[in-house]
Please model this.
Amino acid sequence: MDQLPHCETLVLEKQGPALFVTINRPDVRNAMSLQMVAELSTVFGQVENDASIRAVVLRGAGGHFCAGGDIKDMAGARGQKPAEGEEDPFYRLNRAFGQMIQQVNESSKVVIAVTEGAVMGGGFGLACVSDVAIAGPSAKFGMPETTLGVIPAQIAPFVVERIGLTQTRRLALLGLRVDANEACSLGIVHQVAESEVEIDELLGQAVERVRQCAPNATAETKALLHRVGHESMSGLLDSAAEKFAAAIRSDEGSEGTLAFMQKRPASWTASE
Model:
C-alpha cells in the first residue's frame, strides 16, 4: 500500500507485513458510525490487492475495542422517512454494517483483533470474524441488542459460526456480558493477556507467525476453510486437491520445499 487512505475514524500504520488499524473514537468508546463502516470497508478493499500487507491488526483507542453501533446514526435514521419505493434508512444502516463485516470475514489477509474494554454489539461481531483474537484483562464481550429492544441482525450469523448455536442462544437471548476468560473458554478469543505488556508480546508473536507463513498459501488456506460446511465434502476435497497441486507447483511451493531441504528460512520470512 503505497499511500494509506485518509480516514477520520481510523488511525492507520504499516509495520512490516502488518497494517495496524486503530478505531479512533475514544470519546464514544469507539462506537461504530456509518463513516467508520465505510472507512473500514475502504481499507479492507485496498489491502486485498496489496501483496506487502499480510495481516491487518484491529484495535481500539483509549482502552476500548468498540462499544457497538453509534446511537447518533440510529437517531438520524429514525428522523428519515423513506419515500415510496425507497429502502428503509434503518435497513440501509444495518445492511451496510453487515456488508463490511462480511468483507472482513472473507479477507484474504490474516485479521488479528486485539480486544480491550467494551467489545459489544458490532464490535463483538468484528471480533468474531477475526482469524486471531487476543483479549486484554479489561475486555467485556456482549450482545446487548435484546436489552435495547432490537436484534443482533448482522452479527448473529457470524457469532453462530464462531461459537456454535447453543452458546450464541444463551448470549443473545439473555443479553449477557462475559469477561475475557469466559470469552476464551467459549472460543470468542484465542488468548487472554494479563497486562498491556503481555498483549503486545502476544500480538508480536502472532505477526511473526504470519511472516513465517507463505502469503498465497495462507490466503488459499483461509478461503478453503470458509468453504467447509457450505459444499459437499467430496466436491470440496476434489477442489482442495486441485488447489494443493497448483500450490506445490507454484513459486511459493518450490521455494518452501527448497528452503526446507537447504535448512534455511524461506524468502517470505525476510523483514519487509
